[in-house]
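Exercise 7b. Backbone tokens:
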């Protein structure tokens, strides 16, 4: 067997071995002689570093028109090792000023939901499908309530960032908050059970497959502030998420 062929075979065998390890639940491979604890620590540090480097590369992004009016890019926040990732539609007034996701009233409700799941905000990861504040009236950056959902062009420009975040974090489950993030992620998920004409009310609480990661849609906390009667549905959904994480 020539050298090239041999090398190809080694790569193929290694790939198969790694895939088998992954399928059986192994999350990382450690070098011989390295303790499990230090290998784990190293893995966490690497992910943290990767996310920090990636975040710095996005902070000056000008890929879409939202860059003209934003105050701060809201990259995302949380544990690089999070098993649970929440994804909303975009930053609002408070988020734009603080550079952090879900820190306004809707964010405070999301924190309550997370705490009710026996988790802390620092244990999960929170991001949006676009990282800059979409404004209804771009000439009024100074007023509250001037928010809108991101348009398809803005989503398309920004999505590679979110996909990269998901790839680095590798959550066990993603919870999409509200219709725009649900439709966006399920639209590219390739899950045949997703019908793009379904409303969020119909598909919330159902489990989908987003490129190998579980995904569950639920209502956006801002919607719950407008209609508190729907909180019980979100709690039903979150109980399912807790079961999956357990
Ligand atoms: S929304 Fe995303 S793509 Fe658009 S400017 Fe901000 S970071 Fe860049």
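Sequence design result:
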């Amino acid at each position: 067997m020539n050298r090239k062929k041999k090398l190809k075979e080694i790569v193929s065998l290694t790939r198969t071995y790694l895939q088998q390890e992954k399928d059986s639940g192994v999350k990382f491979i450690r070098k011989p002689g390295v303790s499990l604890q230090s290998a784990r620590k190293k893995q966490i540090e690497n992910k943290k570093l990767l996310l920090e480097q990636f975040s710095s590369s996005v902070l000056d992004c000008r890929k879409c028109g939202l860059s003209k009016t934003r105050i701060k890019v809201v990259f995302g926040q949380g544990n690089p090792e999070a098993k649970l990732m929440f994804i909303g539609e975009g930053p609002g007034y408070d988020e734009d000023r603080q550079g952090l996701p879900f820190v306004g009233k809707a964010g405070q409700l999301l924190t309550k939901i997370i705490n009710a799941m026996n988790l802390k905000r620092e244990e999960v990861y929170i991001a949006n499908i676009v990282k800059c504040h979409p404004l209804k009236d771009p000439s009024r950056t100074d007023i509250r309530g001037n928010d809108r959902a991101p348009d398809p062009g803005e989503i398309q420009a920004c999505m590679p960032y979110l996909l990269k975040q998901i790839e680095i974090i590798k959550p066990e489950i993603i919870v999409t908050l509200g219709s725009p993030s649900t439709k966006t992620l399920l639209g590219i998920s390739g899950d045949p059970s997703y019908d793009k004409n379904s409303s969020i009310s119909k598909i919330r609480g159902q489990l989908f497959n987003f490129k190998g990661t579980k995904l569950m849609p639920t209502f956006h906390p801002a919607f719950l502030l407008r209609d508190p009667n729907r909180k019980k549905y979100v709690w039903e959904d979150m109980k399912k998420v807790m079961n999956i994480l357990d």
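Instructor comment: The first strand starts at residue 77 and ends at 78. The beta strands are 77-78, 84-88, 125-128, 173-177, 208-210, 213-218.
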